[in-house]
Structures are given as C-alpha cells and as structure tokens.
C-alpha cells in the first residue's frame, strides 16, 4: 500500500498453471440439474479402495450408479448409492458415497448416476500405483519452476525470464502503523540493503479465482489461464474507500487497459521490472 491510500496488490499480467497433485485431487462433472460426481482425478490403484462422492442440491434417494468401461461402453458394476455423508455446503446439502472397490481391472472408466437428478463423472483410470503416480513428480517440478522468482529461473518453462532483480538490494523498514488501512506517517528505513531475491511467487489469490471454473469442470489439470488487467478483477489496484469520482477514474483506466491503449507502456514497465 502506498502513502497516497492506494492499496496495490498487482498490476501486471499473470500466468497460472494449475496442477492437481494429491491422491484426493478431484474434478467435477456436471449433468442436468444440480448434481456432480466427484472422483479421484489421479486415478485408483487396482487392489485398493475406490470411492467417489455424489453431490446434489436435493435428495437423491433411490438413485443407483454404474461404472462404465469407456473403451467399450459396457457397464462393469452397478449398485445403489451409499448412505448420506452430510452436507458439502448450503448449495449442496446432500452428499452420498459411491463405493466401487470391486472394480479392479486396469482401464479407463466413468460413473453415471440415475435418480432424481442424473449425473456423470469425468473419465478416470484404474491402474498400478507406479503408472498412476509416476507422472506427478514432473508436474510438481513444473509447478515450482513456473513459480520461481529471482535470477535463477528456467527459461524452458513458460519462457520464464529473470524477475524482480532489484530485490537483491532491498531496504528494511520499521513496522508501519495503519488506521483503517491508511498508512500513518511515512515508512522509516532502518537497515539494508539485503538480498531477498528468489523464492517463489504467491499465486494463491489467482488459484482461488479459478475454483469456480475448476468445480464446474471448466478448468482442468495442465490448463493455463491468462489474467488480463481490465478484464479480470484479480490483477490491478484498489483505492481504499474511494470517492465516486476516484472509482470512476479507476474504472476508466481499467477499461483503457483492456482496450489495449496502454499496451506499449505496460510492456516497457514489464521489461524494466523483469529485466528482459
């Protein structure tokens, strides 16, 4: 936040590559009505427990589910949905366990639910642990390389270039005082310079912005989403308690950026900031 009351949190275009890593990572598939089938996106190991979760905004009492072999369209397992598991949220107060542990053959499958609200899952795999998890380590490595900050970046990952090199000569300031998010007085330099370059970007705010798309099955593993200033709400600046005229002026700036009026100027800023 600057001394003029502008709460800056980002003002450049950001690229986020989403990689779901854990065994419990899941993807949703939406059918007609408000019902989803949540499955393990990584897959299920042949001889291990295999469960999915049905989420619905109304009761699914009496529904059944089937596991379909996607290679031939044949049903390999069917059963009534399991007991209710409580609510997921106010939107989805009904969740049900779908246990299909009896399915052990290697292959690609999907789940369909027939009941008050039909639903279907994305395709998932059943295979050995080695085959399912061998590809996760490179994805973890890719994520950290994509988020790397400072001089030691890997140019082979998303054409990354050294960034924030001025952090090598950072100053230390006394803890500032804020009242109602407004800086009181000025920053007081008490030390430095010190080298605080490197590390990783914090993309948490951007990942959270993609959760709606993720839950709707619109954003999948390995996808890349580009945030644009003036189009997406995440990158940019916020004026603390703006007047009507201030907010109007800020909205106009965003509109001009989205229209490309400041393209050359923004590129010049990025070139200097990222040293390319």
Report on this model:
This protein has 276 residues and is of the alpha+beta class. It has two domains: 6-18 and 149-274, no CATH class; 26-130, Immunoglobulins (Immunoglobulin-like, Sandwich), CATH 2.60.40. Helices cover 20% and strands 31% of the residues. The chain has six helices and 18 strands. It has helices at 129-133, 136-146, 204-209, 211-215, 244-258, 263-274, and strands at residues 6-10, 14-17, 26-30, 35-40, 44-45, 51-56, 64-69, 74-80, 94-99, 107-114, 119-120, 124-127, 170-173, 177-179, 182-184, 189-194, 224-227, 236-239. The strands form six sheets. Strands 5, 7, 8, 10, 11 and 12 form a six-stranded mixed β-sheet that branches. It is elongated and about 65 Å long. The chain starts with 5 loop residues before the first strand and ends with a helix.
Structural class: alpha+beta
Q: Element order, helices and strands?
A: EEEEEEEEEEEEHHEEEEHHEEHH
Question: Average pLDDT across residues?
Answer: 80
Compute the CA-based radius of gyration. 24 Å
Q: In one word, what is the shape?
A: elongated
Poorly predicted parts:
1-32
Q: Percent of residues in beta strands?
A: 25-35%
Beta strands, count: 18
- Give a quick account of the main beta sheet: strands, pairing sense, barrel closure: 6 strands, mixed
Overall tally of structural domains: 2
The total of helices stands at: 6
Q: Please estimate the helix content.
A: 10-25%
- Taking the alpha carbons of the first and last residues, their distance comes to 26 Å
